[in-house]
Amino acid sequence: MTEFQYEIDGKKYFQKPLVLGQIRQLLAILKNIKIQSSGPNQFLLEMGDQVPEFLAIVLIEEGKSPKDKNLKELAAEIEFAIDPDMAIRMIEDFFDCNPTASFLERIGNLGKMISAKIKQPAPGTGSKSSPSSSAGEILPDGTKSSGDTIPTNASPLSDIL
């Protein structure tokens, strides 16, 4: 397992592959940032004010768990304790620790697999067509119902996935 160690204001911190809780925290701060970086320097600029919080999420103090930290407090400490070179090194280490390209590719493949499974007929039906709708009926007010027909304005599931 890849692991990196740093010293910030006399405390030891380490960085290792993310756990699900850290991914959730990162997604929360990255959702409004358009990342198009081609390297750590550009990533640092694109992150802007979010860099200290980003680093607070990925760094773990020695002897502690990723869930046992106050992100705001650690971000404030990091902001005035590390220089840009160290921040760039930490971002480089982040990408070494977490091969995001292969992760994103695997997520994309998972989405395709799920979509293909949804489009397959249920076992034993032998049909790939959509289920037929039931016949319409006349409602008490004299209007005809559409039976089980799906409304034309409904979003197909493939648009959601």
Helix/strand layout:
Layout: E1 4-8, E2 11-15, H1 20-30, H2 40-47, H3 51-58, E3 60-61, H4 71-79, H5 84-97, H6 100-119, H7 157-160
Antiparallel strand pairs: 1-2, 2-3
Report what the structure shows.
- With 161 residues, the protein is mainly α.
- It has a domain at 4-103.
- The chain is built from seven helices and three strands, in the order E-E-H-H-H-E-H-H-H-H.
- Strand 1 (4-8) and strand 2 (11-15) form a beta hairpin.
Summarize the structure.
With 161 residues, the protein is mainly α. The protein is built from seven helices and three strands. Helix 1 runs antiparallel to helix 3 and helix 2 crosses helix 5.
Which keywords apply here?
161 residues; 3 strands; single chain; mainly alpha; 3-stranded antiparallel beta sheet; disordered C terminus; 7 helices
